[in-house]
Structures are given as structure tokens and as C-alpha cells.
Amino acid sequence: MGPLLEYILFGVLTSANLALGLYFSFAKRSKKAGTDEMFLASRSLGSFPLAMSVLASMMSALGVVGFVAHYYYYGFYFNWAFLSQIVVLPMVMNVMVPLLYRQRVTSIFEPPSL
Fold first, then answer.
1. Among 18, 83, 107, 114, which is least packed, fewest CB within 10 Å?
2. Which range is least confidently modeled, 2-16, 28-42, 76-90?
3. CA nearest 43: which of 113, 103, 110?
């Protein structure tokens, strides 16, 4: 891919994200949005968009480059760690997430209400 095509692709993707953000910003202006609406989406977000949001928050460019360097240097031994997710992921989905949702926890750093 040539440099001109890369700049065009970058411009198109950036413009699309900007247009999408502006559309949803101005489309919601009809009603007054409080902090619950802006920060938590009124707790009406589905599980897939929520998971994608968490994934985007947890990943960084440095992490992506770091994984590539790790695979290059050590090989694919890191993939064995993903096998534990087969056991842990259903437990987190069915036990931890509903528990935290019922307690209305907004962050893992929030102190528990006893």
C-alpha cells in the first residue's frame, strides 16, 4: 500500500468516526442528558457494545506492539494463557457481571456498599 493510499484511508476513517460522534452528540440534544446518561448510557447498553467498549479501553497501541514483539521473541507460548479463559469467562459472565450489575457498581475501584 502506498503512502497516498494510507493517508486517504486514515482520513476516511477519522472523518467517519468524527461524523458518527457528531451525529450522536447532536441527535441526543433534544433532551437534557445528565451524568448517568453520558457516563453510563442510562444503564441500557447491551452486553456486546459494553464488551467492545471495555476492550477498546483496555487495549492500547503499546499493548498491540508489545504482543507482536512478545510473539516474535518467545513464540506462541503466550497462547496457553488463553486456555484458562475457557473456564473463567463463563464464570465471570454468569456470576460476577450480574452481581456487580445488581449492586450498581460503576467502577472496580468503587468501594463496596455494605
1. 114
2. 28-42
3. 103
pLDDT of 8 above 90: yes
DSSP of 43-72: G---HHHHHHHHHHHH--HHHHHHHHHHHH
| Residue given cell 445488581 in the structure block | 102
Type of residue at 88 = V
Q: Give me the sign of the Cα torsion angle 18, 24, 27, 31.
A: negative
Those residues with Cβ within 8 angstroms of residue 104's Cβ, 6 or more apart along the chain or in another chain: 43
Burial of 105: CB neighbours in 10 Å, binned 0-12, 13-18, 19+:
middle
Residue 103 carries which DSSP code?
T
Return the closest-CA partner of residue 101 out of 50, 58, 56. 50
